[in-house]
Amino acid sequence: MKKDLVILFDLDGTLIDSTDAIVSTFYHAFKEQNFKFDGNDEDIKKHIGYPLDIMFANLGVDKHKVWDFVDSYKLRYRVISKQQTQLLPNAIEAVELASKYARLGVVTTKTGLYSKELLEHMGIMHYFECLIGRENVENPKPHPEPIYKALEQMDINIETNSNIWMVGDTKLDLISANDAGINSVGVTCGYGNSEELKHYTQNIVNNAYEAVDYIIKC
Asked: pTM of the predicted model, to two decimals?
């Protein structure tokens, strides 16, 4: 057993599918804040993975007003997230397999508090030693700070351990891993596409289970 193996997972598009919850809550925030959104569902989806304030700004909200939209979003999302979020196929199996070989953590741009509640509801939070969310860092992914923070909480020395991996579905996850100096695997079951992911890692698989299987065989 590789006791020095560490695997950090992204959430949306990697372990969970919360697309319906995210999209519907964006529309809720737009309505509550009296904002005329001229885009469509796909415009929202292509920004999933970024922090909420950046997503709203990218969707046309004035940067000085984004936090009002974020507040509207968070209040609604916490109410509906458990009902409108599912684990992706093979996600449980991926986490169970990974736990046999590695120490596990979660690094996400979602709010950490709500993410923990969500994973507890799904029955898998106990597999993870730590969960780093948006409120736990000053600089979210693609900055390496969330990865550094996770490893710090897990008391792992990145300078002496070369067997650390990030598993994620967007370039944000992979850039963060690259800049932190750790290994990465991109999965195509989420919001990124293989052609984009290939710019940041040579390791591309279909889902989290295949990612774990690849990592433990390295």
From this structure: 0.93
